[in-house]
Amino acid sequence: xxxxxxxxxxxxxxDGDETTGAVNVPVYQTSTYKQDGLGENRGWxxxxxxxxTRAALEKxxxxxxxxxxxxxxxxxxxxxxxxxxxFKSGDVLVVSDNIYGGTFRILDNVxxxxxxxxxxxxxxxxxxxxxxxxxxxxxxxxxxxxxxxxTVTDIAEVSKISHKYGKLLIVDNTFLTPYLQRPLSLGAxxxxxxxxxxxxxxxxxxxxLVALKDKALADRLYYLQNAIGGVLAPWDSFLxxxxxxxxxxxxxxxxxxxxxVAKWLEKSGYVSRVYYPxxxxxxxxxxxxxxxxxxxxxxxxxxxxxxxxxxxxKSLKLVTLAESLGGVESLVCHPASMTHxxxxxxxxxxxxxxxxLIRLSVGIEDVDDIIGDLEQAIISSEN
Length: 383
What we know:
By secondary structure, the chain is α/β, with parallel strands linked by helices. It has two domains: 5-245, Type I PLP-dependent aspartate aminotransferase-like (Major domain) (Aspartate Aminotransferase, domain 2, 3-Layer(aba) Sandwich); 248-380, Alpha-Beta Complex (Aspartate Aminotransferase, domain 1), CATH 3.90.1150.10. It contains 14 helices and twelve strands. It has helices at residues 5-11, 52-64, 76-84, 101-109, 126-132, 155-164, 177-180, 215-228, 234-245, 247-268, 285-291, 309-315, 345-351, 367-380, and strands at 69-73, 92-96, 117-121, 137-143, 168-172, 190-194, 208-212, 271-275, 298-303, 320-321, 331-333, 357-361. The strands form two sheets. It has a seven-stranded mixed beta sheet with strand order 1-7-6-5-4-2-3, sandwiched between helices. Helix 6 (155-164) links the parallel strand 4 (137-143) and strand 5. The termini are far apart.
């Protein structure tokens, strides 16, 4: 029997414990497992290689992403590191021109040292994507909506282009989660999440998740997961499963609040631009509606010049200045000096990551309180 996404959030993966009847998967807090003889085990050998609690989470993310295989890691970047380890010296990746700064950093400062390089492209421009692909390119790496400018890429169309030339399509789905968007069903080969964000949802767990359909590719990633070793611990796996159970109700409130905040910002007169694909004025609005079930709850905006962004951050009372996103609390950050500081200033400015850009993760507080706090902080920051 197939279930809707809301039911899968609670009953997907491995539902409960058959041995005891516990409705929650137990925390198997063990590093190793008794073997019945040489070469004889009960499906488990060592918890870096496999752990029942982690396996339940891995099956859950596979189910939610409409995939066949899932992998759980100690952080989103541990997941990205393992996926990028599929490639070898001389390989090139085409990447979205505004992506998470940590993704850029690991490409530019780590994998670049091994001869795995990247080509930055506006992946919302399909002609630019196709023009960037040559024999050296092995994959296209997309965030949609992208971090921090919420640029929307047509995943299905980029998938067609990628596969036309025999390239992998990797999609970071952190901002929307499988509750709103399922890239594997749109043609992606690998989906990556920072589970730290909306999937965990409570700013208390750091994790990374990967989902895919192809067995051969999954086998390669399982090998790398075990070989590299950046796996998610049992307790954190348990917390992730618990967080995912409430993803639907949380996201509904996040989205409702974000829509109101975005419309208020657009009409407020305090900002020169709002980036949010849920606004009809946003260039990604139509594609977002086509490929996803909502616009998410991430908003970026540029303060007008008469306001001092540094004073704005200091004046906030309810909304918290912090790294990360996707928790129940509203968080703001300054991409140019925080999440995207690793990207060279000229690249940042060329794509629109200016000093006045503010990224807002809209929480589930009362929306009038969120708007009220933003307004008083903006007014207090006037030069």
